[in-house]
Write a structure and sequence with these properties.
single chain, 87 residues, alpha+beta, Histidine-containing Protein, Chain: A, four-stranded antiparallel beta sheet
């Protein structure tokens, strides 16, 4: 299991389009991935779950992955977040 905390800095946070990019990326990994923010913790591969966290700009989230590609999963998702979801 690996965890990493990252700050979401893009203007709209993790809503609508960025959340879709995030979910697609998370689903490309076989590991189980959880995203935690503000006391809530959900499956990072669930669009409704991620949207339910209401992650806005400057929110800190913790990603936790467990599985065969856990390092790649966390690294890839953090890179996507840090790149501003390529928007």
């Amino acid at each position: 299991m690996i965890s990493r905390t990252v700050k979401v800095e893009n203007a709209v946070g993790l809503h609508a389009r960025p959340a879709t990019y995030f979910i697609q990326k998370a689903n490309s990994y076989v590991s189980s991935i959880l995203i935690e923010c503000g006391g809530g913790k959900v499956n990072a591969k669930s669009l409704l779950g991620v949207l339910s966290l209401g992650i806005g700009q400057d929110s800190e989230i913790t990603l936790t992955a467990t599985g065969a590609d856990e390092n790649e999963a966390v690294d890839g998702l953090v890179a996507l977040i840090e790149a501003g979801f390529s928007e």
